[in-house]
Amino acid sequence: MRIEVLNTGSELLLGAVVNTHLAFLGQQLFGIGLRIDRQSCVPDGPVIGPVMRESFSRCDVLLVTGGLGPTSDDITRELVAGFFDLPLERDEAVFALIKDRVAKFGREINESLARQADVPRGMTMLPNPHGTAPGLYLPARTHQGQATPHIFLLPGPPRELRPMVLQEVLPRLRELRAKAGGAPETMKVFRIVGLGESQVEEMVGPALQAMPDLELGYCARSGEVDVRLIGPAETVARAAAIVRTEPALREHLISETNETIEEIIVNLLRGRGATLSSAESCTGGLLAHRITNVPGASKVFIAGPVTYANSAKVQALGIDPALLEAHTAVSEEVARAMALGVKHTFQTDFSVATTGVAGPEGGTPESPVGTVFIAVAGPGDEIEVKRRQFFVSDRETFKHLASQAAFYLLRRKLLLCAKSD
Amino acid sequence: MRIEVLNTGSELLLGAVVNTHLAFLGQQLFGIGLRIDRQSCVPDGPVIGPVMRESFSRCDVLLVTGGLGPTSDDITRELVAGFFDLPLERDEAVFALIKDRVAKFGREINESLARQADVPRGMTMLPNPHGTAPGLYLPARTHQGQATPHIFLLPGPPRELRPMVLQEVLPRLRELRAKAGGAPETMKVFRIVGLGESQVEEMVGPALQAMPDLELGYCARSGEVDVRLIGPAETVARAAAIVRTEPALREHLISETNETIEEIIVNLLRGRGATLSSAESCTGGLLAHRITNVPGASKVFIAGPVTYANSAKVQALGIDPALLEAHTAVSEEVARAMALGVKHTFQTDFSVATTGVAGPEGGTPESPVGTVFIAVAGPGDEIEVKRRQFFVSDRETFKHLASQAAFYLLRRKLLLCAKSD
User: Fold this and answer.
1) HSE value, Cβ hemisphere, 13 Å, CA-based, for A84
2) How confident is the model at residue B421 (pLDDT cuts 50, 70, 90)?
3) Last residue of some domain: A255, A282, A312?
4) Of the ranges A100-109, A148-157, A272-281, which one carries the lowest mean pLDDT score?
C-alpha cells in the first residue's frame, strides 16, 4: 500500500514554520505497519491541484495537510471538490458546531467561517474538536477512467491535525491495511553514542547486509548514531542480536527502544526511587525542560534552578563569591560547586550542572564560545566533571549539544551506581 | 528562477527525525530574494534518482540534502555521477582533510570514509568544516539534449548543512539571482495574538486583496495569527500601513518584524535596562530556555528556578508551606507567591511565574489537566495573575501554550510600565 503526504502552506517553504506533520504522520503510520513512500510540499494556492493529481497515479492513500481554514488562501477543499465534480453542500451539523465554537470565544460567525461547513458531496466529514475546520475523507474511486487514491484532507495547525489523525485517520488506515494483507514489518532502532557512523558500520554492517530481507539504515545525529533495522519480526530479531552482542558496541549502546536520553534518565531514576536536581547556567533551562517533557518526571525531578547571573549562583546555590572570582563562572571548580550546591539545597540523590559560553559574545582565550563544563553528583557526593568544546554557530545548537553531553554523563553515573548497589 | 528542494532520508519519512532543513533553506533563500517553489522527500536508496530527474524539467536550481555520508545507504553522490556519466575521482586534498579529521577523534580512515573524497569530474567540491562529507555543486548544463538545473548536494546533519549553505551555497545563488534580474520581493510578517484568523481577515482582507501585486497569506499558529505580505517594496509598504493603522488590530499586534515573543521581551527589557527572573512549575524550564535562546539574554535574565516539587517552592522561593496546604500548588495564590518570591530572592525588576497541570496525571476537579496560573510582577510589586485552561493531548503542547500565554502577559506588563514611566 503506497502512501504519500502533501503538505500545503507557503509558510513551510518560506521557513516561517517547521513542518512537523511529516514526522508525526511517519511515526503514527509506522505504528500500524505502514510507511510513507514520498512527501511533497507546495505553497498555498492553485498549484496544489496539479501536484495532488500527479500523486494520484503513484499512491493508494494521499494525506493532504493545510488549506482548510477560513481565509482566502485556503482552497484545498474547493480544489478537490472541483476536480471530482462534487457539489459543496453546507453541513448544518458542522455549521452549528462552528457557530457554537466561535460563540465560546465571544465572536459571531461570518461567511468565511461558515465556508468551513461546506462538505463536498460524497466526502466524509472528520470532526475537529480543536478548531473550526473539519477534515474530509474521500474513499478511493475511479474518476474519468482514472483510479484515484483514498484522500484525507487534514487541517494545518498541529494541535488540530494530531488528534484528528489519531481518532479519525488511523482507524480507517488500519482497516485498509488489514484488507491489503501482507506480512507486517517491525522496526528496531539502536541509539549509539561516542562512535562515528562509519565505525558502527565497520562493526556490524557486513553481518547485517548479508541478511536479504533486512532493511538497514543509519542516521547520524548530533553526537549520536541510530542504526535502524526494518523487516519481518524474525529477521529484525536476528539482526538485533548481532548489534546487541557486538562487544565493541556494548558501552556505546544507550537504547534499543528509540527512547530519548531524557526518558532513559527518568526511567533509571524511577527504577531506583531516586531524585534529581539540576543547576544550569549556559543550557539556560533546557535540561529541566527536556526532563519535564517526560510524563512522570514529577516523581523524580525536584528542582532545577537556572542560575544565569553570577549573583544567582551565589544566591540560589550558595556558591562562594571568592570561587567565582578566582576561577570565573566557566570553570571546573564552579561546575563542581553548582552540582554540590543544588544537590544539598534540594536534598536530592543525584544532580547535574552546566556552565559554559553559549555565545555569540562572552568567549575568552581560556574558555572560547562553545566551552562547557558539566558536573554530575551522586550518592556520597561523588562528583564527575567533564569539559567539552563544541564548534557551533548558534546558541540553540550549542545548548542542545551541551544538554546531550550532560545527559550522557548523568546516565553513565546512574548505571555505575546501579552496578555498585 | 524556480527552486526545488529534495530531502533524502528514510528517517524523515519514518518520523525519527523532524525535517528542519526546509525551514532553514526557506529563510536563508528569502533573505537573498529567492523562494522555494516545491519540496520533496524520499527514502534513502535508488528512488532518489527518478525523483531528482523529474524535477530537472521544472526548476533552475535543485538543492538535495542527505545521502553523502560514509554508510552503505548513502548513494546520492554516486547517483548523480552515474546519471551525468561523470567518473568519480578521489580528491587527494579532501582525502587528507577527512584523514586529519578522523585522526583528531583518534580513529583511522577506512574505505567507506575515503569514499566521501570521491568527487564526480566536473563537480565543485564544497568544503565541510563540521564533518567528513563535503558538499558538491554541478552548474546547469545540457545533458543528452535536456537542460538540467544547478544542482547542490548537501550533507544531511543540520550542523554540517547550515554553515555550508551560508558559506558556499548562498554566495553562488546570489550570483545566479543577480544574473536572472527581475525586481526583488520584500516580505513583512505581522504577528497578531488574541484574534482568530477570520476576524483578522474581516478587518484587513478586503483592502489587501484589492492590491493586485500583493501576495497575501495567513498562518494560524498556537494562539497567534501571522499575516504575511509579499511583493514589491512599495506595495508591501502600502499594505503594511493598512494593517498597522487598523484600529481594531492595534492592541493585538505584537510584532511586525517576525520576531519571536521572547526576542520582543528581551529587547523591551534591554531597552529599559531592566532585569527579569522566572519561577516555573508546570512549564518546567521552557520559559528560561526560550529566554536564554535569545542572544544577549544574559544582560537581562538573572535566574529562573524550576521549582517542580512543593518542597522546592518552599526552599527556593520562600513559599509558606501553609499556603501550599491551603490552596494547593496549582492556585492563584501560589502563582502570586512564586512571582513575588523569585523577584525578591533575585532582586529583579520583573518576574514571571507558572504553576499548572501538564498531565497526563495530576488533574483534579478544580484544576483539570491543562490548567495553568500565570503571574507577572513588576516594579512596586504590582502583580497580575491569569488563569488559563488549555485542551491539549500532550505535555509539550501544553508547555508551549502556557509559555506563550506567560510571555504575552509579561509583554503587556512591560509595555504598560513603559507608558507609565
Assistant:
1) 28
2) low
3) A255
4) A100-109
Q: Does A288 sit within 8 Å of B303, measured CB to CB?
A: no
The CATH number of whichever domain residue A379 belongs to comes to 3.90.950.20
Amino acid at position B351, single letter: S
Tell which of B4, B37, B218 to mutate to test the A interface (max A CBs under 10 Å): B218
Q: What is the mean pLDDT of residues A43-58?
A: 94
* pLDDT, mean over chain A: 93
Inter-chain residue contact B285 with A297, CB threshold 8 Å: no
User: For chain A, what's the residue count?
Assistant: 421
Q: Which of A27-31, A151-155, A187-191 has the highest mean pLDDT?
A: A151-155
What pLDDT score was predicted for residue B29?
A: 94
Contacts of A90 (CB under 8 A, 6+ apart): A114, A117, A118, A119
Amino acid at B107: R
Can you list the alpha helix ranges (DSSP code H) found in A347-388? Answer: none
Of residues A290 and B219, more confidence is placed in A290
* Alpha carbons B294 and B32: distance in angstroms, whole number: 23
Determine which of A6, A8, A19, A300 to mutate to test the interface with B (most B C-beta atoms within 10 Å): A19
Q: Nearest chain A residue to B37 by CA: give it.
A: A42
Lookup result for grid cell 584523514: B99
Which structural domain, as residue segments, surrounds residue B130?
3-180
Which candidate, A240, A268, A225, A276, places its Cα nearest to that of A404? A225
Report the alpha-carbon distance of residue A178 to residue A320 in Å, rounded.
66
Q: Which residues pair with A383 in a beta bridge?
A: A377
CATH number for position B238: 3.30.70.2860
The residue out of B180, B214, B241 marking a domain boundary is: B180
Residue A83 clears pLDDT 90, i.e. is over it: yes
Same-domain pairing of B76 and B167: yes
Same domain (yes/no): B339, B376: yes
E-strand ranges in B245-312 read 253-255, 276-280, 301-307
> How far is B32 from A154, CA to CA, in rounded Å?
33
Cell digits for A124? 466524509
pTM: 0.83
| B80-89 pLDDT tens trace | 999 999 999 9
Distance separating alpha carbons of residues A288 and B50, to the nearest angstrom: 45
Q: Kindly list the residues from chain B whose CB atom is less than 8 angstroms away from the CB atom of residue A16.
A: 23, 26-27, 189, 219, 226, 228, 258
Radius of gyration for the alpha carbons in chain A, expressed in angstroms and rounded: 26
B106 and B34 co-located in one domain: yes
B396 and B341 fall within a common domain: yes
Closest CA to B68 of B115, B6, B129: B115
A314 plus A295 within the same structural domain: yes
> What does the pLDDT look like over B244-269, one tens digit per residue?
999 999 888 988 887 889 999 999 99
Same domain, A265 and A387: yes
Q: How many CB atoms lie within 10 A of CB B146?
A: 10
Is residue B19 very low, low, confident or very high in pLDDT (cuts 50, 70, 90)? Answer: very high
The SS3 call for residue B125 is strand
CA distance A301 to A295: 11
H or E stretch covering B351:
strand B350-356
Give the separation between CA A376 and CA A59, rounded to whole angstroms.
51
Supply the DSSP symbol for B392: -
Same domain membership, residue B302 and residue B360 = yes
Q: Are residues B56 and B108 in the same domain?
A: yes
Indicate the number of domains in chain B: 3
- Judged by CB atoms closer than 8 Å, whether chains meet at A307 and B303 is answered as yes
Per-residue confidence band for A421, with pLDDT thresholds at 50, 70 and 90: low
Neighbours of B225 (CB within 10 A): 22
CATH of the domain at A10: 3.40.980.10
Nearest to B393 among A162, A277, A285 (CB): A162
